[in-house]
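Thread: Modeling a multi-component assembly for a lab meeting

Hi all, long-time lurker, first post. My supervisor asked me to bring a structural picture of a complex we are working on to next week's group meeting, and I have zero experience with this. I have the sequence lines for every component (229 residues in total). Could someone generate the structure of the whole assembly? Inputs are pasted exactly as I received them:
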Amino acid sequence: SYVLTQPPSVSVAPGQTARITCGGNNIGSKSVHWYQQKPGQAPVLVVYDDSDRPSGIPERFSGSNSGNTATLTISRVEAGDEADYYCQVWDSSSDPPGVVFGGGTKLTVL
Amino acid sequence: EVQLVESGGGLVKPGGSLRLSCAASGFTFSSYSMNWVRQAPGKGLEWVSSISSSSSYIYYADSVKGRFTISRDNAKNSLYLQMNSLRAEDTAVYYCARGAGDYVPFDLWGRGTLVTVSS
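Re: Modeling a multi-component assembly
Sure thing. I ran the full set together rather than chain by chain. Output:
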C-alpha cells in the first residue's frame, strides 16, 4: 500500500516561513491535500489539489508537489498556526483503492 | 448551516458492536461521497471507509475490512458505520467527512464521536 512520510515536528519563529514535507513514491503524479488540526478540534482543509486554497484560508498557506515530495508552505507564521498538519492522497494504484494520510507534523511556533 | 453531526459513540466491551450515525444538513447530501476517519488518542488521522454518493462504490481500510460496514440513506441525509467485533485498537474519535471530489479532499468534517473499547 502507498505510504506518505512526514517529519514528526517542525519549529519556526513567528514571522518566518514554515515548510512541511510529505514524501511518497512519485507523489508528484497524485493530487495532494493538506489539513490543519488544532487540539480538541476536527481537521480543516487548508490546501487541496497540491496548491489550491479553500475559501477562507489565508494566502499565507500554499502548496507544491513534484517528484517524490509535496510541500506545505506557511509564510509569515503566526502563533495561531501552531497545530498538527496532515497530508492526504487518494491511492488509486492499490487494489482496492483508498485514502492515505501522512503521519502528521506538529508545527511549533517558537 | 452546513454541518455534519456524529452520534452513537460510547463504551463497548471487546467483541461488541456499535453503530455510528452522521447527520448532514445545509447541503445536498446525495451529491457527495462520504467518509469515516478515526483518530486514536494522541495519534494521527486514519482513514476508515468511503462510500460514493449513490452507494455504488464502497472502500475500507484493511484494519476494519470484514468488521465494519459503511452505509448511507440519502432520503434521511445520514451516513452510518456499523462496527462489529470491536477491539481495543478501535478506540478512537470517529469523524465523518464530506468528499469534495470523487472521494477526496474532505472539505467538511463533523466534530467527532468517541468510541472506547474496553472491558
